[in-house]
Amino acid sequence: MEKSKETTERMEDGGGGSADPSPSVITVQVKFRGNTIHISINPESTVKDLKSVLQPLTDVLPRGQRLISKGQLLVDTMTLKASELSNGSKIMLMASQGLHQGGGPITKEASPLKRAIEAKRTAYDKMKAPVDKSRSERWKLTGVISLSEFNLTIIPDEVWTCGSSVRVLDLSNNSICEIPVKIGSFSVIQKLLLNANGMLDEYISWEGITSLKSLKVLSLSQNHLTTLPSSLGTLTSLTQLHVANNKLTSLPSEIELLTQLQILSASNNRLSSVPSSIGNCRSLIEIDLSSNLLVELPETFGNLHYLKVLNLSNNGLKSLPSTLFKMCTQLSSLDLHNTEITMDLLRQFEGWEDFDERRRLKHQKQLDFRVGLSAEFDEDCWMDSRWIEELGSTSTADQ
């Protein structure tokens, strides 16, 4: 190893007796979706190695990448040097449809979000939805406030006057800039929908939200959140947590305190891992972690004995927790589209046969009662085409 290192150093210094020493590192330019990605890599690396480097930068799985240089498709097994790539070489990356994880490469914002928020605040008087007295009285009587798609930029004053009578507050699909601490005054609220408002972390009072001890459903999907606080674990009555389509890079380990949680929706984020403490959320029935940056799952998934639906599509997963099929005996819907997991690997898991039987029975029941049919049947179909072909050939052989 030391000898190899010394040789490399001599090559970099121009010594070693070689008339034309090769550089130990080259920088190539990869064009993808209007972006240029600069990659520094050893020229003796293979094209497949380059694809692995590109995966976390583009969210495109290696098997879904087509690299083209000078009009030629680069071959996985060839080295970059043999492919005639050198310093400054330009490569075009073409992604196969669907073979991706996460939400694609990071791109520049079309406009500064904070500046837009300030503009929305000043425009409140113009955009404020009128709230008449009769509506306010109805809110107090029913405990249900529905203001979805009202072009709101802040929460109307009339909402706050309802105080402790509010059970459901739907503020989804607006442009609300800020959730103030006084949101905590809704002491008996059970359902809070804040999805699709474009909110940033710093404009949400988690102190107020996490004081809502009766809250059962919290939806924060389709915003610009990058983190969830550890205090989320104090919402011990929560049965549904929806945080899909944000920019989350992790989930707090305190999620383990949500022992009544049944539905966790966290798709289309930038999650690279899931805390092992999720195994303590033993009431979970449905989990959606699709379109993230996951390469593995904790073994504690085997503790989720009531889990029925698990969506892991569009991730870089190469395997599953070893006890998933054995211990999750109610699991009947598993989506692994566009992952690196193969059919041969799945057959090696203990409990695989029982899971496969449950899956088949579920789909058969859907057909028998004429529900599901084409669109919904496909929604629960977890296999991609190569697995369907393998299963078909296996069934034929067994006969």
From TrEMBL:
The keyword Repeat applies. Keywords: Leucine-rich repeat, Repeat. Signal peptide: none annotated. PROSITE patterns: LRR (PS51450), UBIQUITIN_2 (PS50053). Residues 1-24 are annotated as: Disordered. Gene3D superfamilies: Phosphatidylinositol 3-kinase Catalytic Subunit, Chain A, domain 1, Ribonuclease Inhibitor. Residues 1-13 have a biased composition (Basic and acidic residues). SMART domains: LRR_BAC (SM00364), LRR_TYP (SM00369), UBQ (SM00213). The keyword Secreted does not apply. Residues 26-97 form the Ubiquitin-like domain. GO terms for cellular component: cytoplasm. This is Ubiquitin-like domain-containing protein. It comes from Protea cynaroides.
